[in-house]
Amino acid sequence: MRVRMRRYVAISLLTLALCGGAEGQRRRRGEEASRHPIREVNQVARPDSTRVVAITGATLIDGRGGAAISDSTVIVLGERITAAGPRASVPVPPGADIFDARGLTLLPGLIDAHFHIDGDDTLPALFLSHGITSVRDPGQWIEAYAAVRQKATPLPRLFLTGPHLDSPPPAYPADSIIVRDEEEARLAVSRFAEDGASAIKVYFRLPAGLIRVVTNTAHARGIPVTAHLEIVDATDAIRAGIDGIEHVTSFGTALMPFREAEKYRQSVLADNNARREGRYTAWSTIDLDSPNAKALYKFLAERGTFISPTLAVFERQAGDKDTTDVHVRAFRNMLAFVG
Known about the structure:
It contains 13 helices and 16 strands. The relative contact order is 0.10. Strand 4 and strand 5 form a beta hairpin. It is of the alpha/beta class and 339 residues long. Helix 5 packs parallel to helix 6 (208-220) and helix 10 (274-283) packs across helix 13.
């Protein structure tokens, strides 16, 4: 079967190619990571495992950093990519369904690594239509997706954590569940695990001791844990078992001199809003060449902790409204930290 695709349709059939990056992360984390695979909460359509599809003629951007291949062939068996490269070097198996993609660009399905639905049920399907085949929402109730999951519209893979596990007073009450002791921590993790959560997220008021309870409980269920830390030292949280960290600002207290970190911590404990400008003041003076910083880089690399920096959409930068020199210097340091 030969199909001529419309030019306005972006081909995003190569979602599984992104597994290469995930596989590399798993190798770095070794056996520990293999016990905590990421699972989507929704059932997505699965192709016939015996069907062979050949996508031919597209300009291929394979996501590995090399030059684009102007006349490519990609072979897909079921949901697994078995070959990709220049058309001349990738033979098409007999009986394959052929999609003629000449004049189009082919690339792996994209992942929105930090997405929030925020009550707009049209977003997931819209994202899929633009080639985003997976979205990851670390911090809203799974029930917030109930309506969109009931629709017949095709959706991206939904990786959801449920609400933040936080201590009082929570920064975002509508998106939080309050955890006050070890038993409440275990019960919260178990409840969201039963709901099918892809991961668990802890928030910055949860102390390190309860973070350890959360990670132990989640890992026993085969579920990873991510965190927005801000006032919990990232090194302490990772030693407590955290698998990943949301927002570059979560590393502020781990990079600051201890006395300054404690001052910032106490200001946020007294008022959640203190972090809104306080994080920029802190990051504007952080020394990324300090022994403290170098030790953190080494520790992160050894542990294979994943990071979702959210710099592009979450932090003020030059040109944004009401941005000051402090914001600009802070953003420059944040950007340098993530490389």
